[in-house]
Amino acid sequence: MLQSQRSSPVPDMPVPVTEVPVTEDAGLANTASFAIGLVRRQYLIIVLATLVAASIGATYLWATPATYAAKAQIIIDRGKSAFLQQQAFFSDTPMDAAQIESQIQILASERIAVLAVKSLHLTEDLEFVGTGGGLVHSIKQRIGQSLSSLRLDVFKPQPARTDSDLVSQVAAGLLSNLQVSRLGMSFIIEVNYRSHSPERAAQIANAIAEAYIVDQMNAKYEMQRRSSDWLKNRVNELRQQATASEDAVNAYKTENNIVAAGGTLIKEQEVAELNRQLVIAREKTSESLARLNRIEAALARADPGAYVDGGRSDPSVDGTVSDVFNNPIVTKLRQQYLELVNREAELSARYGKDHAAVVNLRNQIRDIKNSILNELKRLAESFKSDYLISKQRQDAVEKDLARSVIQSQETSKAQAALRELQSGAQTTRSLYELFLQRYMESLQQQTYVTSETRVVTPATAPAQKSSPKAAVVLALSLLGGRGSGVALGFLRDTMERVFRTAEQTEAVLGVPCVALVPLVKKAPKSSQPPATRTAVVNGPRTICRDASIFWTVADSPLSSFAEAIRSVKLTADLQGANGSSTVIGLTSSVPSEGKSTIAASLALLIGQVGCRVIIVDCDLRNPTLTRALTPGVTAGLVEVLFGDKSVEEVSWRCPLTNMTFLPATDKSRLLHTSEILGSPAMKKLFEQLRLRYDYIVVDLPPLAPVIDVRAAGHLVDLYFLVVEWGRTKIDVVQHALTRTRLVHENLAGAILNKTNMDQIGRYDMHRREYYDNKHYARYGYTT
Questions:
Q1: What are phi and psi of 454, to 5 degrees?
Q2: Which letter does DSSP use for residue 498 in this model?
Q3: Is 53 exposed, middle or buried (0-12, 13-18, 19+ CB in 10 A)?
Q4: Is the pTM here over 0.70, yes or no?
Q5: Closest Cα to residue 196, out of 63, 68, 102?
């Protein structure tokens, strides 16, 4: 056996990654790979759904009787002779899509169906007065025929029905098999009827077309008759109303002496002119008031005595007056004022503010400012005078307008009433003449009624059935079943939420996936002699060998299982402490993920290469590893911590791999295991173990059920999280790591355990060849 010290860890070096641009071809390739992988993963569901859909299609073909479709074509022709166009009471509007659709709905209405039922005496046809039609009836009929030989009364007869109910039922059955549609953008409407008899299908299609034509003629005649009766009554009413209206107009003119000149009253023209003058006066008053308010505000801000040493004056005078009122005198004075201020500032800086020239300039500045204010006061008086004049003009116009409006209203009342009477009389007279003309035309139209619809192509008995089409039904069944299977498979694949690939594990957890440990269903047979596989009865404490999976690393060192454990050791070496022993903790999110098996396999592998290694079972509440390696042990880790035993007295050793095991007794249930793992005695024990061993492998409890892993955080250098392939939920692992921040921060990597190497290629299509055993067989590896 190789005896060598653990190699010094290699620091992590950044690996340059060349970003490959994602092209359209790459996107198509990824989509194709995902689709192929989905089919490979969910092929059972897809096949099952396809078979179910095919069975449904076959059942439909077996239960559905053959039907035949007959077609009749009718055309709506609005072309009329010149005589009919002149005599038409209601003018025909051009046909549009909405009108054609309305005619289609009439053709498929119950009224037309009832006419066809009565004309063909369909109430005596067994196809319509039986128990019904359709798929359900066909299935009942087929089953009834099958059971007729046994003379079983499967279906009870229906109770007797009235004639109207029977006609309505037959019409409803007829409409269920009727289809009316428009041919393209033409005025031709196609009547399609399906029946189990080809002759009956043709008869019903022709009967529907004829019933529609007769109904259109009857409806037109009835409409013309009702129109004539209504017009007659309306003409009499309008004659009386026209006479009464004209008499009322003449009487009102005589009573009020109304004479119109040019159609417009003089007072109305006067009111319009005064209203225009009032608008102009108000605008001028508002403008004068705005100017007055602005200059008064400027005078209120100005202070002729406000002069500060240093050449500064009241800022309200400097930039407000000349820019707003655009007065040439103020503008000129302000320019002189600014020049003197600049000179005063310059001379003050040069000779001092008490110099005679500076004092002289100040006096000039004060005089100019007083001149500006005087000019502003003069402007204010001028603006005030303008405002008063405009206000007086506005008041005068308003008084004249109010007086004219009152006079105009009194004068116009009589004329307004007269116009209303004249308009009513003229309207009534026009209506009377129009309705009298229409009434005479309507009387002429009643003597000649025609239909705009005629049959273009009558229906004939079809030679071939129209449905069901076996090829179409089976094809749709297979396609629908396959689509449903793919949808169900995709839904199942999406809702699975478990770990399947290393790339997925790294993306979800944010740590590298250091190993894919394959699923080993049965431990291989040992190559060692049987004598070395039994415990020594009277000798040192030797670990009992059994058929546990973790012995695979010793019995099959060239297996993919052993190679995965080597990957875990290499990661621990690269991230371990430099120059001292490494404490490696293995945990999982939930129980039964295989953390104890990985811990024992890792310790056995380390012992094989000649390093000093001890594995400590810290799962005090459920010491699974102790039960597997040392069943029935009576002393262990707890006794060492309490001082009852020493490590040498309770530890066990594997002679083949140079591995030492510190068990945990299972003779009593411990309640405060977190306090034990976080105790100073535990810390002292691990300090002693670091001096004696190169590696310390710790089998920790799972994260979710207990808090022991957090209590043992001060003992472990780095952690490995064991995740069971295809079983552990992603949300459970994320929640467990969130609650245990110390483990997450010191997590060296995740181990995807119990990986089904035969199925993982279905989930990782890009690397499916990576899992092919032929690549490993060239180096002597076994499955």
A1: -145, 155
A2: B
A3: buried
A4: no
A5: 68
